[in-house]
Amino acid sequence: MKLLNFHRLELIYFLLFTLWGVANGQVTVFYLIYLFWFQELIRTIVDLFFIIKQQKTIAERWFSAKNSFGGFFILFIYFVFIVVLFGWMVNFKNSELLATNIGVFVFKNWYFNSTLILFFIEYLYFRTQVDNSNLKIEIFNKRHIILHISIIAGAIIQMILLPKLNIDNQWGNALVVLPFLLLKLFLNSQSDFKTNKI
User: Fold this and answer.
1) For the segment 147-185, what is each residue's pLDDT rounded down to a tens digit?
2) % pLDDT > 90, the chain
3) Would you say 43 and 138 are in contact if contact means Cβ atoms under 8 Å apart?
4) Residue 185 CA from chain centroid, whole number
5) Contacts of 82 (CB under 8 A, 6+ apart)
6) Cα–Cα distance between 38 and 70 in angstroms, integer?
7) The domain containing residue 171 runs over which residues?
8) Distance CA 191, CA 19 (A)
9) d(CA 196, CA 151)
10) What is the rounded average pLDDT of the residues 79-88?
11) Is residue 33 within a helix (H) or strand (E), and if so which, with residue range?
12) Half-sphere exposure of residue 12: CA atoms within 13 angstroms, side-chain side
């Protein structure tokens, strides 16, 4: 099977589990932003593994690990912001959404966990099939921009749009999820397997 087909498969299962989760009231803004963050964490860890694997000496491996610190630090900043703002503060008065967010955070959300597991398997396979000689972990990359956009969009939706629309049903939940699905579709369309990007 071609790598491009695996890329399309990732989009299919992402949409499948997300829409299924929406239908069952298990997807929130926190769920989606945290999912994007976790996918980037998986990419970074897998990339670091393949970078270190190519190094021949302990000193070179240590140097590679040290150089990746900036990328992990940026992800840590995002993690704190996402968990505190979207996981807790924004939904503090809504016990149902707060419980859903906590379920996602402690890995008790089946839709979230399944998406992550499949993504890990797919990305690990992808890295075994391409040339990783020029692979490096950047402090800031285009996927971090996606996280930025997701956070801004999530804040606008949660703090401005939803209070005005006053929608509290599955259709309202679907409306909240729609911008993130469009963002994911756009991100996938911009990915390029031929240059080892995913």
Assistant:
1) 778 788 777 777 777 666 665 555 566 667 777 777 777
2) 24
3) no
4) 13
5) 30, 33, 34, 37, 151
6) 17
7) 3-195
8) 22
9) 26
10) 89
11) helix 29-54
12) 7
Higher pLDDT, 140 or 7: 140
At residue 197, the pLDDT reads 47
Q: Specify the amino acid at residue 101.
A: N
Amino acid in the structure at residue 179: P
Measured between alpha carbons, how far is 179 from 107 in angstroms, rounded to an integer?
Answer: 24
Number of domains in the chain: 1
Per-residue pLDDT for 113 more than 90? yes
What are the CA-CA distances from residue 119 to residues 35, 41, 78, 131, 154 (Å)?
Answer: 10, 11, 20, 20, 23
* Per-state percent for the chain, helix, strand, coil, to nearest 5: 80, 0, 20
Distances (CA, A) of 188 to 173, 182, 197: 23, 10, 10
Average pLDDT of every residue of the chain: 80
The residue assigned the tokens 């593994």 is 49
Predicted TM-score (pTM) of the model is 0.83
pLDDT at site 109:
95
CB 68 within 8 A of CB 51: yes
